[in-house]
Amino acid sequence: MEISIWRALCILVWGKARICIFNYEWARQILSSKSGHFLKNDTTPTVLALLGKGLVLVEGIDWERHRRVINPAFTMDKIKMMTKTMVACAQNMVKELEDQASSNKNGETQVELDKQFQELTADIISHTAFGSSYKLGIEAFHAQKELQEIAVKSLLNVQIPGFSYLPTKGNWRKLTLEKKLRGTLMQIIQSRLSSKGSGYGSDLLGLMLEACIATDQGREQHQLSLSIDEIIHECKTFFFAGHETTSLLLTWTVFLLSVYPEWQARLRLEALRECGKENPNGDNLSKLKEARKLVPMLPFIIYFDIFFFL
């Protein structure tokens, strides 16, 4: 990499130099580097409470351990098992919108897409991640959603060391939400562990607990390769990361379809060609073009190079 090119991409954020990489090969080298020079960016305690120190934030040996446990939960066969649940949740949303439209004289209804897709993705993740405990999952979602609003406000404020520990109204509310979120997730996990005789379930949490046990064949059966705290962090990570990014992607995709009617026509023809009049399933969905390949769910990823600080 020539330093002249790096200088051209260098910007200052709050006095810190940041180099924006747009080259695919450079990004691949940074993301796949095992030298230990490129580390994930530190986050604030509020964001950590929201996102959890799961696979997105852990590094090194911990990342390998988390990845080894979680990978079996995301095999193609197990993802296909969740498709019916996702379709059912989407059908419920469509039915509600149809009922709203039919109740009006003109047969139309005004929809706030962002809110609608937030509710849809929360419903899907609650069902696929927590199965029969999806109602508790919805409670966790509402607590996490309010934590998100607090986290966004904290990012816009000047970071004063120790301020988050002061007994302010906002800090008390944040602490209450953190306890509620953790308590709800703990209740779901403990309930699942206590009923292991009938299996841990086919949802994401059940698959994760099953994978934990499966990777511990050399140890006692009750010992998990991830601790309860780490499983809670992973639940936070998948709940937030899966919900927020997907709802934004859906909103933007549908907005683009509304702007370009010709795209709608092409999409309908493609869906009818691949799915016919049947509900989408894991097999025919793989034949459809993916909007996420054109519209990335994450605009950027921040890493820092410790080599310059050694």
Automatic annotation (TrEMBL):
Show the PANTHER family listed in the entry: CYTOCHROME P450 709B2 (PTHR24282:SF135), CYTOCHROME P450 FAMILY MEMBER (PTHR24282)
State the Gene Ontology BP annotations.
lipid metabolic process
Print the keywords alphabetically: Heme, Iron, Membrane, Metal-binding, Monooxygenase, Oxidoreductase, Transmembrane, Transmembrane helix
Its taxonomic placement starts with:
Eukaryota, Viridiplantae, Streptophyta, Embryophyta, Tracheophyta
The GO cellular component terms are: membrane
Cell location: Membrane
User: Pfam families, from UniProt?
Assistant: p450 (PF00067)
Tell me which InterPro entries the record gives: Cyt_P450, Cyt_P450_E_grp-I, Cyt_P450_sf, Cytochrome_P450_Monooxygen
Principal location: membrane
Annotated family: Belongs to the cytochrome P450 family.
Q: Which gene encodes it?
A: OSJNBa0013M12.8
For this entry, the protein name equals: Cytochrome P450-related protein
Which organism was this protein described from? Oryza sativa subsp. japonica
Q: Which GO molecular function entries does the Swiss-Prot or TrEMBL record give?
A: heme binding; iron ion binding; monooxygenase activity; oxidoreductase activity, acting on paired donors, with incorporation or reduction of molecular oxygen
